Each structure stands twice: as C-alpha cells, then as structure tokens.
Amino acid sequence: MDSTIDLLQNEISRLRALMDSSQSALYLLKPVYGGQGQITDFTFVVVNKKLSAFVGQEPEALRGTHYSQWFPQYRTNGIFEYYCRAFAQLTPLQFEHHYINDDTDSWLTLEASRMGDELQVTFLDITENKRIQYQLEATIHQIKNSNENLEQFAYIASHDLQEPLRKLQAFGDVLQSQFADSLVDGEIDLVRRIQNSAKRMQVLVRDLLTYSRLSTQTEPFENISLSRLIKEVLNDLEIMITEKQATVRVSALPNLLGNPLRLRQLFQNLVANAIKFQKPDQKPLIQISARHAAPNELPEELKPQEQRLFLLVEVADNGIGFDEKYKSRIFQPFQRLESRSTYSGTGIGLAICKKVAEIHGGVIDVSSQVGQGSTFKVFLPVYGRTS
Questions:
Q1: How much is the pTM?
Q2: Is residue 292 classed as helix, strand or coil in its secondary structure?
Q3: How far apart are CA 353 and CA 358, in angstroms?
Q4: 226, 255 in Cβ contact below 8 A?
Q5: What are the pLDDT digits (tens) for 291-318?
C-alpha cells in the first residue's frame, strides 16, 4: 500500500513539474451554479506556475477561489461567456483576447475544453508577437504608400516632360528646315546636339513611363503561345536583326498563362540586348529555348516554392558578356555596365524584364562570362494545363 501511495505521489509530482514547466498557463476550473441552475462563476481546481505568476500569487492561494476574485472584469469582457460556451459544447473553443486592467495590457490566445465536470483552460501570452505583427503591418503600409507615391510621381513627371521635349524637337526641326541657310557650321552642330539630347530624353521618359505603369496597371492572364509571341518579337526586331546580320534560333516552346503585352516587353528587351551588346567584328547568335526547371535550378527567391512547377525560358547569346559580380546591379533601373557612347540605351530595359517576371510570380536570373556571352533565365510558374 505504501509503495502504491509513493508511486502515486511520484506521478503527481512529475505531472506537477510538467505543468509548471509549460510556457502556457494551464488550469482546471469547476463551474459554480446559481439558484436557477445557471453558471454564475468558476473556481480554480488546478493551477500551474505560469498562471500564478500572471496573477502574482502562489498556486496554493488560487486553488478553491473564485475566478472573478482575480479577474473581476471577466464577466464583462467576454471571457465568462466563452467559458460557458466551451463548457456547454463537445469541441474545444479557441479565441484571442486583449486583456486590459490597471496593471496589465496583454494579448492572450486561449483554448478551453470540457473534461467531465470541469473546464480545462490554457492560454499563452502573445503580446510580443502582436507588437511585432503591428510593427510589420505599419511598415508594410508605409512602404506601400511610399511606392504608390513614387510610382505616381514617376508617371506624372514623365507625362509632363513629354510636351516640352516634343517642342524642343519641333523648334529644332524648324531651325534646320527654315533657317539652315542662315546658320553657320557651329550653330548647325549646336541644333543637332539639342535635337539628339531631346531624342535621348524622350526615350528615357518613355521607358520610365513603361516601368511605372508595370506597378500601377494590372491586366488579366490568358493562354499564350510562347512560340507565336517570340515570332512576333522577332518580326518587330526584323530591321535590327537584318542590319546586325544576327541569327536567332528558337526551339519548340510551350504555351503558358500570362499577360502577352508584358511578356512581349520582356523578351523583346532580352533579344534586343543580345543583338546590341556584341563585339564589333562578331555576328550575333541568339538561342531561345524552354523547359521545366529542376528544383535545384531555382534561384534563392523561389526556393520556398520548390514544390511548384516552373517554366525556365533561356535566352542565350554570344555577346560581350560581363562579370557576374555585377549581375544584381544590371536589373536595377538606370544601371549600366557599358558606356552610353559605345552602346545606346537608357539602362532601364532589364529593370522592366525583372518587374514583368515578378508580376507573373517568377524571377529573372543570368549567367555570364566576359567575352563569352550571357544566358538570361526567366522562371515563370506553371498555372495548371495551358496546352
């Protein structure tokens, strides 16, 4: 008999140690009934140290006392109603509660479930998690507002710049056509420089408008024949391809879900860059292919989604290439690795490619070697069957 009692006491001690080691408050409540048979309060039966610390009392001081003695507001703040509901139903009841009194301002997550004639309750203080959540939400809201303001500013500034630039070019045309005989060589060269600068500025403004609209305009996705889209891109670039004597080889390409206008912008920029960034004595060779990406091929940004299926479209060229330590830089707006005098452009084309890939839920990556060419890799998620 003594050994049985000792064993039982050991088990109770172990259970008590287990309860007291919990990061959650654990306790059992027994309902107190009024004259009409309705529950009017609860009393503490078992209490762990987490709850007693929350109240600021030893566990022995709580056992057998009424819940309302230590939490007088629980009748009016909704907790009492939750406990009564949990005691009346068969399934556990979970809820969050913002607990406020004169000394405490805490967020709690509670779970209450009936065990025979008693109610088992656990709660965890999630105040710090809530604080971090609110900070993140506030930061996201600030970033969203900032991005919207920047996009709106870019659009307005670019749009308002268009008209004065058109006037600059028009006045230059008038000077050249109507007053050419009155201008000396230096003045003619000055007019030419003004017009060239206005043209470059117009291209920059146009690209800036395109980039800003990518974030402010959303179009629905549709089933796209990538083969047909690439064919249209090559038709648009026909003059450039002919002038540079470029060869473009296109493998069999699948269908995909996306926005045709945005994807055309992406691949037109990639092919145009592959033709443009060449050594003077070399004919461009561009190869376009597509396949499903293996999980170990996915860039870091897509690693959390490695269970998804991604289409990998590669645009490879034999151009001048670049040092890969600069590869994150080339996708930023207005970042250039080559001088403007050698290779024309505004430095925003690859930023547009990056934004288009992101709009489609994918990313763009690149591998390159100086003098050996580059391979741009566009990863696009596969949204079910499209063929």
A1: 0.52
A2: strand
A3: 9
A4: yes
A5: 999 989 998 889 888 888 999 999 999 9
